[in-house]
Structures are given as structure tokens and as C-alpha cells.
Amino acid sequence: MNDIIKIICAIILPPLAAFLQVGFGKHFWINLVLTFLGFIPGMIHAIWIIVKNKQ
What we know:
The structure is a single chain. By secondary structure, the protein is mainly alpha-helical. It has one domain (2-52). It has helices at residues 2-12, 14-22, 26-37, 39-52. Helix 1 (2-12) packs antiparallel against helix 2 and helix 2 (14-22) runs parallel beside helix 4 (39-52). It is globular. The two termini are 12 Å apart. The model has no long low-confidence stretch (mean pLDDT 92).
């Protein structure tokens, strides 16, 4: 259930979803840059982080 909420958050605001999953790590900053360059790459990266780092 928690992953579903994070994925919904990744669709609405990708950097927030990345932060919730990994904190202020390198993936958060990569996601922030990708979101500034284009919303879709940031969204895909955030979903990838959530699926890859299942806890």
C-alpha cells in the first residue's frame, strides 16, 4: 500500500517521491535535475527508484 502512495506521488511531484524513498541522496538530486529538464523524465526516474528500492 505504501508503494502505491509513493507512485501516485511520483506522478504528481517526482522529487517528493524520490525524497520519500531515498532521502537527500544522489538519486534525489538526479531526479530534481531531470524534473527541471522535463517532467516526464523526472516522473519515470522517480517510479524507477520506487520499484528498484522496495523496502
